[in-house]
Amino acid sequence: MALLQESIDHIPLETGFDDPIYESQIVFRKILKVMSEPGTIKKIKNKLSAPAPMMRATAAICLTLMDFQTKVWLDLPQDSEVSKYLKFHTGLKLVEHSSEADFVVFFTAPAELPPLNLGTDDNPETAATVIIQTQSLDDIGKLKLTGPGIKKSRFLNAENIPASLWDHRVKANSLFPKGIDIILTSDKKLSALPRTTKLKMLKTIKG
Amino acid sequence: MKAISGERKRTSRLKEKTLDGYNFAYLDDQTKRMIRRATLKAVAIPGYQVPFGSREMPLPFGWGTGGIQVTASIIGIDDTLKVIDQGADDTTNAVNIRRFFAKTAGVETTENTSDASIIQTRHRIPEVKLKSDQIIVYQVPIPEPLRWIEPREEETRKMHALTEYGVMHVGLYENIAHFGKVTTSYDYPVQVNDHYVMSPSPIPKFDNPKMDKMPALQLFGAGREKRIYAVPPYTKVKSLDFDDHPFEIESWSECCALCGSSSSFLDEVITDDKGSRMFVCSDSNFCADRRAKGHKGPGLPRKFEIKDVE
Amino acid sequence: MYVAVKGGDAAIENSQTLLAEERRGDKRVPELTLDQIKNQLSLSVDRVMAEGSLYDRDLAALAIKQARGDIVEAIFLLRAYRTTLPRFGNTVPVDTGKMQIRRRISATFKDLPGGQILGPSFDYTHRLLDFSLAKNSNAPLAKEASEDVLAEMPRVTELLNDEGLIEKEIDDNEQEPFDVTRNSLKFPASREARLQNLARGDEGFLLALAYSTQRGWGKTHPFAGEIRMGEVGVEIIPEELGFPIEVGEITVTECQMVNQFKGSATIPAQFTRGYGLTFGHNERKAMSMGILDRSLRSKELGEAVNAPAQDEEFVLSHSCNVEASGFVQHLKLPHYVDFQSELVTVRALRKASAFSEKNEDSTDSKNVEAAE
């Protein structure tokens, strides 16, 4: 009985996808779109409720991509509500060190990146995918994006991301094909910066 | 043993449309997630072959299982699917794959290139320019462009890691020395975003230029070889060549017997045992479209009628 | 567009109806039941289960019936079904030491604890067609043995182990084993990945390669240390219980090959092992696997690698008959676009060479004229 009681305690109040197979496909296509066309912004429409400080787009991405085969590191304590929620809905493996993780989630944008798996020259796909929550996400901004998936250039504004983080990203991506792929979220919005995207900080806002 | 988590409760919106007892689009969600993760990494590293846990499909390996797994992992009920083999919608294999998705995913299918949101193909890229928001999924038999030079995966993996592609150029150059030109006519290797050398799948080299800066997303699935790779939209794709021997594509002195097109890839059809032949568009939808718009070719030999057998 | 290639739904459906008709054959002959296949074609069932990587006699029998007895096709059917099944957990490694033995032989010792148990075997049959089977046979019941078989039959390799004469098997259960059905194989492959690959590999392919090493293409001099066949329990450890419970019983054939090894500066001379294990009763497969497992260790043991059976990537990349059969037969699919490409190229080359020959001819004749 004690066993049963314990497992009931583990059921979070917040709900996941109502219709997982259907909804995760739709969310995946949005992730695929933003990853293949960096700087594009997509919005999720799912009705899920996520425990604070997790934003809805972050939750939708996690539920879509994570399961017992993925190692995940969160910038939150292992016994946080978010951890419980994700464990319950995806069965993911939480890891202690950020360098072991396939997915790294920052609920608050860090000033610098912790040690991350950048992949290897012959297996660059093992590198981490980094999800970062921001205060707002717009296609008008001082960040100028160029690279694969972008016709000429795109512009982006990701609020509350310390400029030093972009320097860290440049360093992590300096030895292509090694590098990290970033997904940015803000409430219901998502955008992405794969390792091939070049960023330039402009003096004025464009878009 | 792991308790089944919150997933897999209801599939209400999908179950109405799909085959009883099977998952939506055949693959279970766990497999789809694995393929989706691999696909995202493929997109993030253009032209790099991402290994994935390819599954046995109910169609034989070598018959499009890679493309089918990719399509099954991305497709949703709002998609419209087009399937072609050799450029045509009506070849048995294309019909069979389309049937598979109609049965297991209940999606709408089309022959019209512009109406499709996903196009699965074997050996061709449609003649009509693909648009942004469309996805083309190629079926790939041998994803490794270096295989014919070095059969060992252990070695080719290193060559890609070091972008050591000199041998590839040497191979092509030997070809020139022997024949006076590069004689590779299909599966002609390309370099993606100035980095990875990639197999475009066995499309004729005629189609190679269409890959360059294509507005549509290009995904490649090799089921038997367990690899997925990708070219994001607007990405540079260059066919390997030399300054003194620039890349060139096939051309025909004839035009399509049916629609008169002189800019499309033509199939040769033998019309009698004396070796008479005629040429028709390999892209059946492109050809039909032109004919509907009133274009006419020189026509078929009299005894060779078009029969639309259903 | 043309009748010859316009397949369409109707053509595919007609073909499949025809196939079903051929499968059934003459309707005056009673239809095969799955029980008949399971019981009387049991070795076919065993092979389909082994290479189909799914232990289910009923489904294997169904696959054989559906495939009209085409074993590779039946294996494909079972594999394609298998991939749709959810995974509940991993089993504890089966303990063949506790096998309920039906057959156990050793070629290395005349007698040994537990004895030689011949069991059901084709080995000493005279391969004479038994015409009595053409009619309904009344197979006699075998006599029950006068002695009980040991409940825990010691393995020959363990007996050698006592003296340190054979390399130790490393018991490394800490890490979750690699799963070839869920991951793409990487080279060099781990031993467990190799053994899994061989266990589901095509019997004919394994047999031919094993044979090639015996003939000197990559030398292995194996002794069949032991072959045993019988039933083993399959256990899982449910998370909520924390101890193993038996969920079923399967028949397996195990082969331990013993090979010579010269030793090195650090290791004294000792025997090395090759291991084979298959579902069901299949000694040909288990022995081939044992030989190949050992020959694929050549590199690791510092031996010269110069034959196909020693080449890991060659063997493991080509062992799967579902992959091989699909790719060989995919040549049936239309290739006329690629062929057209080649035609254009070959014609252009011929035209170019005819042109240069003509030019050479005319230069030659000019030269002749000049000489005259």
Describe this structure in words.
The complex is a heterotrimer of chains A (207), B (310) and C (372). With 207 residues, chain A is an alpha/beta fold. In chain A, 27% of the residues lie in helices and 25% in strands. Chain A has one domain (2-201): 3-Layer(aba) Sandwich (Rossmann fold), CATH 3.40.50. In chain A, helix 2 crosses helix 3. In chain A, 49% of the residues are buried. The model of chain A is unreliable at 1-6 (pLDDT under 50). Chain B has 310 residues and is of the alpha/beta class. Chain B has a seven-stranded mixed beta sheet with strand order 1-9-8-5-4-2-3. Chain B has a three-stranded antiparallel beta sheet with strand order 7-6-10. In chain B, strands 11-12 form a two-stranded antiparallel sheet. In chain C, 40% of the residues lie in helices and 12% in strands. Chain C has twelve helices and four strands; from the N terminus they run H-H-H-H-H-E-H-H-H-E-E-E-H-H-H-H. Chain C is globular, with a radius of gyration of 28 Å. Chains in contact: A-B, B-C.
Which terms summarize this structure?
heterotrimer; B: 310 residues; alpha/beta; seven-stranded mixed sheet; 8 helices; 12 strands; 26% helix; disordered N terminus; disordered C terminus; C: 372 residues; alpha+beta; 2 domains; four-stranded antiparallel sheet
If classified by CATH, what would the architecture of chain A be? 3-Layer(aba) Sandwich
What's the CATH H-level homologous superfamily of chain A?
Bacterial phosphonate metabolism protein PhnH
| Class inferred from helices and paired strands of chain C | alpha+beta
Please, how many domains of chain C? 2
Distance between the ends of chain C: 62 Å
User: How big is the Rg of chain C?
Assistant: 28 Å
Tally of contiguous helical segments of chain C: 12
Main sheet strand line-up of chain A: 1-9-8-5-4-2-3
Low-confidence stretches of chain A: 1-6
Regions with little confidence, pLDDT below 50 for 5+ residues of chain C: 1-5, 364-372
Class from helix and strand fractions of chain A: alpha/beta
